Inverse folding.
């Protein structure tokens, strides 16, 4: 009986770890974290676009 219980508990631990690995870990509760990530991405994209526009303007001034 003890071996059977140990085997069942072993399977539970192994399958629980596999489930945790496949689903990507703990779930984020609430919408604050994804919203903050989206804002960070938008800010970074805006910085990149502004930098690219500045470089284009600088090149345009060189060739005038």
């Amino acid at each position: 009986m003890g071996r059977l219980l140990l085997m069942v508990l072993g399977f539970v631990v192994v399958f629980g770890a596999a489930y945790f690995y496949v689903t990507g870990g703990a779930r984020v509760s609430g919408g604050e974290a994804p919203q903050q990530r989206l804002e960070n991405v938008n800010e970074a994209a805006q910085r990149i676009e502004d930098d690219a526009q500045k470089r284009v303007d600088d090149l345009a001034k060189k060739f005038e």
